[in-house]
Design goal:
Number of helices of chain B: 0
Order of helices and strands of chain A: EEEEEEEEEEEE
Largest interface: A-B, 20 and 21 residues
Number of strands of chain B: 11
Strand content of chain A: over 45%
Order of helices and strands of chain B: EEEEEEEEEEE
Oligomer: heterodimer
Shape of chain A: globular
Distance between the termini of chain B: 36 Å
Largest sheet of chain B: 7 strands, mixed
Shape of chain B: globular
Structural class of chain B: mainly beta
Strand content of chain B: over 45%
Radius of gyration of chain A: 13 Å
Largest sheet of chain A: 6 strands, mixed
Number of helices of chain A: 0
Chain lengths: ~110, ~120
Amino acid sequence: AQTVTQSQPEMSVQEAETVTLSCTYDTSESNYYLFWYKQPPSRQMILVIRQEAYKQQNATENRFSVNFQKAAKSFSLKISDSQLGDTAMYFCAFMRNSKLTFGKGITLSVRP
Amino acid sequence: GAVVSQHPSWVICKSGTSVKIECRSLDFQATTMFWYRQFPKQSLMLMATSNEGSKATYEQGVEKDKFLINHASLTLSTLTVTSAHPEDSSFYICSVRPGLAGVASYNEQFFGPGTRLTVL
């Protein structure tokens, strides 16, 4: 079974600064997908970024980028130029055979 | 991204009653839908995988007789919490997976807005 670990329960960052959220996972599979989801106070799950395990290039989406280290089974999310609207809970997730396994999540607060 | 709706958005019921939650895929056919449960400040836990036209697959520890899932069409799945108890109070979220293999979004799930269930 796959496990996803987010060891930091919460973080805080100053507006316009950069913050990195860490995530590690454990799997014996070689083909899988990794995701970061954002859950704001509305509780709607929003996809932030996706990484295919077979791709060596790190995914980027505007201010969001990942550092994917397959051998180390690490998948961290970097948020650049943090904005107040980034305040939310962030979940790292692993997908294999269409099933998602989520980490415990991290609460990110962006300070004005 | 895909649009997924859930109804109701919140519901309060008495202990012992049953509650039905609907999940609809509004702009594409979904052969597979997923049901999650989320307690406050916690992660999403997969309860079951709902496949159109067949029986749902439940995760270990989830009572299938208590959480009845029906996926009768390619756009609708329902979760019925039977004989609800206060410990069933939670946030229930559905997600859908597009039914087209080879499409880039095939390996994504699109989430509904969730349903808050409170059992008194």
